[in-house]
Amino acid sequence: MYRLFLFLLFFTLSLFGRYDAAAVKMCPAFDNMKHTKNTGHVVLHPEESYTVLQKHKGQMLLLLKGENPAQRWVDEECFSEESKNTESKKKIAYTKHTKKYENSAKHQDLLLALSWHNAFCETHRSRKECQRSLFSFGKNSYREDRFVLHGLWPQPREKVYCNVAQDLVSLDKHRQWNRLPEPELDAKLKEELSKVMPGVISNLHRHEWIKHGTCYGSGAQNYFEKAVRLTEQVNRSKVSQFFLRNMGKSVTLQQVRYQFDSSFGKGAGKRVELRCYNGLISELWLHLGSEGDDLASMLKNGKAIYSRCQRGIVDRAGYGR
């Protein structure tokens, strides 16, 4: 009876000790007090309310319904007003830095990564951009017989997250791309980007802007306009025609580079790298120089590159080779 009384007393105190509080900053929610594990990469979001179970040594135990485990530990500063003021200053600073950076465009080497969408979907069948319409009746969609945009990456590759707040970096690294800010693009460019980058439906464009676009040297509109135009130039070239003719067949790096030379000038092919996975050509990486507005001149000024992949199959639409 005494034990039952103590249990009921503890349960009652725990129940009444609970309260809801709004987070003031983005924080990871850990399974334990030592912060060594975060199952599901759960993150708190500013201005959302959470149930607080208890406080202990600068930490708070929360009840997050729908998560497993549901009880999570976070730093107390995630809910403090002082932290909120600090975060506001950080956001203001981020906005100012971004605007300043947008007005200081610099020429730099770039890497244009183009995916062969059919090969991508062989190993990413559950992705939204890989779902085929029930009314396609065997006809290939735009993305299934052209190269699609993966990204345009300022070089060197280590140059990422320029002037980006740490909370956004954390979201990106945990692949919570749906919570990243939408790049500011006009309606026409949004439509064009959705066509050449099927991954927009999975918020790939938000990831690419935060990680790489912020280092481009100008705003999102200019960054994605450049990426779209360069992708379209490849898809209008002999390179794209060559891949269409050889779907289901194995082609060599030498053949691909020859097509680039024929389309964009002698030596262009030396700047092209094949990326392969499980015997399939998954991507083309084009190493572009800093000078020029079109693909031919940018390839001419790019760096010659060694390609580890020397041969691969051009995958057909649908699953299986």
From TrEMBL:
GO terms for biological process: RNA catabolic process. InterPro entries: RNase_T2-like, RNase_T2-like_sf, RNase_T2_His_AS_1, RNase_T2_His_AS_2. GO terms for molecular function: ribonuclease T2 activity; RNA binding. It holds the Pfam family Ribonuclease_T2. Belongs to the RNase T2 family. This is Uncharacterized protein.
